[in-house]
Specification:
Elements: H1 4-18, E1 23-28, E2 34-35, H2 38-41, E3 46-52, E4 55-60, E5 64-69, E6 74-80, E7 83-88, E8 103-109, E9 114-119, E10 125-130, H3 131-137, H4 152-159, H5 166-170, H6 181-191, H7 204-223, E11 265-269, E12 272-276
Parallel strand pairs: 2-10
Antiparallel strand pairs: 1-8, 3-4, 4-5, 5-10, 6-7, 6-9, 8-9, 11-12
Helix pairs in contact: 1-7, 4-7, 6-7
Length: 282
Amino acid sequence: MPELPEVETVRRQLEKVIVGKEIARIEVFKAKSWSGEIPTVLHQQVKGVNRRSKVLLIRLTNDLTLMVHLKMSGQLIYVDGAFRTGGGHPTADWIQELPSSHTRIAFTFTDQTKLFFNDQRIFGWVRAVNNHLAEQSLEGLAPDVIDPAITAEYLFQKASKRKMPIKQFIMDNQIVAGVGNIYACDALNLAKISPLRPASSIPKAEMELLLKSMREVVELGIELGGATAHGKYVHVSGLAGKYQDRMRVYDKKGQPCPNCGKMIIKIKLGGRGTFYCPTCQI
């Protein structure tokens, strides 16, 4: 699933190429993936591309917003002749002819460039809503982990009465947004904290270290364009990220811990594969 650095990378890539373009046509190939009145979106220009947590917000000139959530397997791919950019879940759709069998929505701009929303599992969505409704629907989301509004004191207070494992705590988007599975595993390793510890057991000093570690791995992920962990698509120019080359523990079962050199193990926690070092993460 694309995490905050991957979604932020898509935002930055699209911001470079679609701002100022006018939408001439929208084709919806899967009704489940689209919500909104198509005529209200046509002939509108893109004013900007923003993000809240993992939701992309494509702002239009008539006070409408296209809200996009990639969910498990979504992609946004901009195509201008042979040039492609965007990203999301790595599949052959990055390189094959579009629209494909996974294309759910296609936007054509007046200059005939295109933006494709692809989604294998059909969990993602695009919603055309007014700006007020867009902001209302995002009210339940906590600030991103890289937002100065998130402090160690805030996390410490939120954790004080919670017995849930600390890994699940930092992945709860109602507490702090933007820490997905990959970055949660790596941040906990960097902070030398076991993912199994109850959130309420983390003293303020350790919470400060954990917040610093979360920001460090997420900011590195953004710098490297996110993670692309699927073989032949990792070097597709303009689409793939490189964080997978710097992962600390995620997907490294049986390999040495970067802190102490002991073996990384994998367990299931909250239904998610969780990688950590039982020797130094205590």
